[in-house]
Every structure is written in structure tokens, then in C-alpha cells.
Amino acid sequence: MLGLLCKHKPQHPSASGLTIHLNPTTQHPRFQDISRPSPPPPPLEPVLPPPSSPDTHQLATDSKKPGTMADVSKPRAKQPSSPAKTAYLVLYNFASAVAWSVVLGRAVSVFAVRGPQFVPFAVGEWTRWTQTMAGMEVLHSLLGVVRAPLLTTIMQVASRFILVWGIVYPFPYLAQSPFYTSMLVAWSITEVIRYSYFALTLSGFQPRFLTWLRYNTFFVLYPLGISSECALLWFATEPAGQRSELAKWVLYTVLLVYIPGSYTLYTYMMSQRRKVLRDLKAKDQRASR
């Protein structure tokens, strides 16, 4: 019995005798036969554009119209000034040029014939109201009637208001100084040229000699006018101090403000001069072609 059991004892198969049979149809793709041709890919369906909606068509049409988003990069033509505005500015500049011509003529003639002490009696009142009318320029700049910078306009008008109403009017004897006459000469020549230039330019004329005077005479007239104004302000500090100590220090403050203010006005005219002369040069080059 023991021998029979030993004879029929099950034998474990060895690893070397193990045989694995794989079905070719179930092999992993990386082990498939590469010699077998792969099936052709399915045909691609054509991708059609979506139907255009009315909004899409309108957007494409509007992009070709001026004033839309597609036309933003195109420069727009400058809107011309209204005839009423132009007529008003021509009249204002013409009247101002005439008024300052009266100041210039009277100041020079009286100074030459009778001396500086008689100049304020001949032209002082006229100068005060002529300069007061120039206060309209602040309103013009504020409302956008003209493109002049508001700060520069206020500085120039305010300084002259101080002279005619705050210095000469309460202390009329200061106007008998030669500095008053030199101040009026500088003011009046500057304004006659400036207002005449603007009146003719707005009317469609631009004489070259007037343009040259407008952007070159300030080299002399501005220092003459500013130095004369500062001299009158300095002379007024003592009588103003007798009335009020505060008024005296206000005038000292105004004199200090003249330092940056004069620089601002002068550099502004320099920049305007460069711009105008550059435009004239470009215009001449285009005309010569």
C-alpha cells in the first residue's frame, strides 16, 4: 500500500516545462505583427462654417464704416470753428489792437513832448480799462473759446491787474516814474502785435512780417515789461506798508512769484516760437516741391 502511494504521488511541473500559448488575436498592440497593414482611418467629415447671423453680418458691415471700432486708428478731420465764434474773436482782437494802439501812441507822444510825469494823466485811465477788458481772455480760456493755457493766461492777466488796480490806482504818483512809461510801451507794443496777428490769422491772412514780430519781439519786450513791473511793485511796498503791514508782505510775495512766473511765460513763448517756425518751414518745403 505504501509503495502504491509513493508510486502515484503527484509531481509538480518544473518552471522549465511550463508552456504558455497566446492567442494571436489577443496579443497586446505593441507585440502585434507590424507587417500586417493597419486599417485605413475613417473619412473626416467636412467642417462647415456656422451660418452667419444678422448680428454677425451687421458687425462686419459696420467695421467698414467710419467712426466704428475698426476705424478708431484713422485720424479724424479737425472740426472747423463756427462762423459766429470766429466773427466774435476777430472783433475782439481787432478792438483790443486798436485800444492798445491808443495806449502806445499817447504814451510815446506825451513822453517825448512833456516827459514821463505827464504820461499817466494822458493815458492812465484808458490803460486801466483797456487792461480790464483783457480779463475776458481768462473766460475765453476757461470756456474753451481759445486754446490758450488757463494757468499762463491767469498769471499774465492777474499780474497786470495788480499793477493797474493795486499799485497805480491807489498810488497814482508812482505812475510818474519812467518805469510806468516803459511798462506801457512794452505792454502796448506786445499787445498791438499779438491782437493784430490773431485778428488777421482768424480772417484768413497771416503776413510773414507780423508772424516774425509776434515770435521774436518778446525777447526784448518781455524783460523790459517784467523789470518795469517789478520796479513799480518795489516802490509800492513802502506806501502800502504805511496803510497795512499785511499789504506790504503781500507785495513782497508777489515779487517772489514773479521769479517762477516770468520763467513760465518766457518758456511758453519759446515753445510757441519753435512750433510756429517749424510749421512755417514745413509749409515752405511743401510749397517748393
Automatic annotation (TrEMBL):
Q: What class of enzyme is it?
A: lyase
The UniProt keyword set, sorted, is:
Endoplasmic reticulum, Fatty acid biosynthesis, Fatty acid metabolism, Lipid biosynthesis, Lipid metabolism, Lyase, Membrane, Transmembrane, Transmembrane helix
Cellular-component GO terms for this entry = endoplasmic reticulum membrane
Biological or metabolic pathway of the protein: Lipid metabolism; fatty acid biosynthesis
This protein's record includes keyword Lyase: yes
Q: Where is this chain compositionally biased, Polar residues type? A: 13-29
**Function as written in the Swiss-Prot or TrEMBL entry:** Catalyzes the third of the four reactions of the long-chain fatty acids elongation cycle. This endoplasmic reticulum-bound enzymatic process, allows the addition of two carbons to the chain of long- and very long-chain fatty acids/VLCFAs per cycle. This enzyme catalyzes the dehydration of the 3-hydroxyacyl-CoA intermediate into trans-2,3-enoyl-CoA, within each cycle of fatty acid elongation. Thereby, it participates to the production of VLCFAs of different chain lengths that are involved in multiple biological processes as precursors of membrane lipids and lipid mediators.
Protein name, entry field: Very-long-chain (3R)-3-hydroxyacyl-CoA dehydratase
